[in-house]
Amino acid sequence: MPTKEKTIQIDRAYQDEPLLADVRDLLKHETQDVRAAEAVALFCYQVKKWIGAFAAALGGIETLVFAGGIGENAPAIRARICDGTTARSRPGA
């Protein structure tokens, strides 16, 4: 059970209906809840932006490795982050 600290408020207008800050829950609800869809889209955008910044600072990257929960359990998130880049997400790789 998520703790109260893990609960986030995406939109102040929905304070009585908080979303849980767990990507699995957000993915599960994104087709029914615009707040969940926006949270997933924003997360993927921010990750893509940071990867681009690191790649620029490093003069490019040869391999992109996702670790932790996203690396192990979120092929949909990996694919969205890599969408529009030359990197490709390979489930299980």
The tally of domains stands at 1
Helix content: 40-55%
In this structure, how is the largest beta sheet organized? Answer: 2 strands, antiparallel
What portion of the residues fall into strands of 2 or more residues? under 5%
- As a whole number of angstroms, the C-alpha radius of gyration is 15 Å
Structure summary, number of beta strands: 2
* Mean pLDDT across all amino acids: 77
CATH superfamily: ATPase, nucleotide binding domain
Unreliable stretches (pLDDT < 50, length at least 5) are 1-14
**What would CATH call the class?**
Alpha Beta
**CATH topological fold name:** Nucleotidyltransferase, domain 5
Termini gap:
30 Å
The CATH level-2 architecture is identified as 2-Layer Sandwich
Number of helices: 4
Which structural class is indicated by helix and strand composition?
mainly alpha
Overall shape: it is elongated
Q: Write down the secondary-structure element order.
A: EEHHHH
Q: If strands are numbered along the chain, what order do they take across the biggest sheet? A: 1-2
